[in-house]
Amino acid sequence: MLSRKGVVRQHCRSNPEETELQAFAMATSFRSRLLAQRALMHRLRQPQRRNPLQAGFTLIELLIVIVIIGILSAIAIPNFVNQRDRAYVSSARTWASAEARKCGSSLVATGGAADFSAAAAPADLPTNVVATAADSCAATKAWTINFTPSNGNAVTYTYTVGAAGDVTATQS
Asked: Between 96 and which of 32, 128, 143, 158 could a Cys-Cys bridge form, CB atoms 3.0 to 4.6 Å apart?
């Protein structure tokens, strides 16, 4: 590679009519072109960087997220359904227990058959929860809750009023 002085001297020898200043200017432009070419080659050798406007997720990343969401859904949805069924059963059991206790209190207060009207069973129960009220308030009358969960193991909760007005809860 020629230095700047070498380029100027060589140019002056080949073109005697040009001044040394013109030759120096020509050598400087040659040098700037050479530096520009080197800078371009350097940029071409560097790995490409992402443009911030083109940022996003790859297909693999999106597929992994979808698989994770699917696994979580497979675990969470059955648990949610079971919790909802338990809430319905709990609501029905609370109703039956309260009605049986009201009947027992009424029996103790009146000393026998009472003028008692039971409240209706909760209306928002699903089809797998059946609440049955006693037909009247007397000793040995019972309020029952029948629950059949999705696994098929039926459960019956019974609230029976005793002669002394006490309430007995059984599960079968």
From this structure: 143
